[in-house]
Amino acid sequence: xxxxxxxxxxxxxxxxxxxxxxxxxxxxxxxxxxxxxxxxxxxxxxxxxxxxxxxxxxxxxxxxxxxxxxxxxxxxxxxxxxxxxxxxxxxxxxxxxxxxxxxxxxxxxxxxxxxxxxxxxxxxxxxxxxxxxxxxxxxxxxxxxxxxxxxxxxxxxxxxxxxxxxxxxxxxxxxxxxxxxxxxxxxx
Length: 188
Known about the structure:
Layout: E1 2-3, E2 12-15, E3 18-28, E4 36-43, E5 49-55, E6 59-62, E7 65-76, E8 79-84, E9 90-94, E10 109-115, E11 121-125, E12 129-137, E13 150-155, E14 160-164, E15 172-176, E16 181-186
Antiparallel strand pairs: 1-6, 2-3, 2-6, 3-4, 4-5, 7-8, 7-10, 8-9, 10-11, 12-13, 12-15, 13-14, 15-16
């Protein structure tokens, strides 16, 4: 058993007969009254996000997980197929478990958290950013660049990202996987 002082991002806990992963947390010490921890939890079974508050010293049941490196192979309907890079064992996971499945490129390496008690995969941690090629972008109109104007662009995985007007088809761009937003153009 762990307590609220052990809470950190990425920790998996049992709560309300389900397994949740802590996405965000904040220790709050109000001037009046006891301290508490405000958390944002994601259910690993259905992907729903839940806001919850734990009082200070509250006991939480921690789930032991192991992280293994997997390589993304291919999609098949709502399932995504991965291969363990050490044992070459293949698994398929539902798209609800993934944070941003539309930014996942074939051959990309990810970390998969596996419950040590049941040997079932719990969550997939994407890299913090991915580099993808723009397959479609409307041309930027000269004279519209005075402000922070953006346009929609489609990348090689099929995802749509808002990019600055100077981005054209064929450019490679870096995308933040947590927000799905454009970071920078990549020169090769």
